[in-house]
Specification:
By secondary structure, this protein is an all-alpha fold. Helices cover about 45% and strands about 0% of the residues. It has 4 helices and no strands. It has helices at about 5-10, 20-30, 50-55, 55-60. It is flat.
Length: about 70
């Protein structure tokens, strides 16, 4: 069986986030203020206020997506 994510190793290395941060991100995303960014990659380290203010540019330049560009 191939492992894609070594979750235990990530936690051991301190690469986790507190539940309060995860809940804050989920709440912000559910509020609707970032709906224009649906389908884009958001990381816990992202400044959600800055993302909201840069939404037009992010969408126009098709940023923060997982796509293969040819």
């Amino acid at each position: 069986v191939q492992k894609y994510l070594d979750l235990r190793g990530m936690f051991d290395k301190g690469r986790d986030i507190p539940p309060t941060v995860a809940a804050g991100i989920a709440t912000a995303l559910a509020s609707g203020s970032l709906d224009a960014l649906t389908g884009r990659v958001v990381q816990p380290s992202d400044d959600l206020g800055q993302l909201e203010s840069e939404t037009d540019r992010i969408v126009a330049e098709d940023l923060m997506t997982l796509r293969v560009r040819t």
